[in-house]
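FAQ
Q: What does a multi-component entry look like?
A: The components come first, one per line:
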Amino acid sequence: MKKTILIYGLSLAALIMLLKVLQYKYMLMDLSIEVYIGVIAALFTITGVWAGSKLISPKIKTVVVETLSTPFIINEEAVKSTGLSQRELEVLQLMAAGFSNQEIADKIFVSVSTVKSHAAGIFLKLDAKRRTQAILKAKELKIIG
Amino acid sequence: MKKTILIYGLSLAALIMLLKVLQYKYMLMDLSIEVYIGVIAALFTITGVWAGSKLISPKIKTVVVETLSTPFIINEEAVKSTGLSQRELEVLQLMAAGFSNQEIADKIFVSVSTVKSHAAGIFLKLDAKRRTQAILKAKELKIIG
DNA sequence: GAATGATTCGTCCTAAAGTATGAATGCTTT
DNA sequence: AAAGCATTCATACTTTAGGACGAATCATTC
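Then the predicted structure of the entire assembly, as tokens:
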């Protein structure tokens, strides 16, 4: 980017010098002012388009990720290393399934308080701030499917 | 596109006329030629960048990240069928990456309000009640990696 | 028996997420 | 010109999530 600006500045300086020379040698100003402006305008419009295409950053980043065709096996080792309890793992799976705390509570027949307690434990053990982050980490560790 | 070219042409004509007038009234040419060229150059560079951004098709950067077994390809058809916009897709990906609305807002340089608007659109189009559910559905549809 | 950890539940509080509504801008298409 | 869509932002409100306590029960372990 810096190089682009540099080249741009140098080109401008060079053009000015060129015109200065032409002005003295061939009385450039005798040319119609419309032509004069037109040439400069065209020149810098092109330069502008070029500079713009250089400076404008690409818009879409399509990330292609690999998908395992191999059957998913819950990594028991990973579960142990995190220290997640059975119940926490259960809650985590339901979280990843898109359920709210209330829905999870209803499914496993406990109160929302309990689900929250488990959630807090999950976030602590997976070092996550939010459930979405916890789900992501759990999938990376192959703790959940 | 035609309008763009038309506006561009008219602007150029207007500028030439303006300079003509100035030339007669205030002896514009007495000004240093460097300044003169500089102004026109700057003006048309800006115009060029603007015109370029309009006329040149947006850059699309596709980053391919590894394909171990089954190559994952974002299902363009599925994206279209959901009717998700470019921005919504972007927000969705960041959601799936575990970011909060505030963090997403900071990353794509918009306000939290805007992120929430996109989120609402996502939930509607993916028929989801929560972000975790939206992420799940998006993965099922292979809209995100 | 005491300590430990898992599970359960509660309250209080703050932060984040989500809903609803309105509105401005700019681009595209008809 | 007009209608539609995408993008942006705001305000106000409700709901959900999360943090920070404490505390009870039960089984296992030391």
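Q: Is there any commentary attached?
A: Sometimes. For this entry: The mean pLDDT of chain A is 75.
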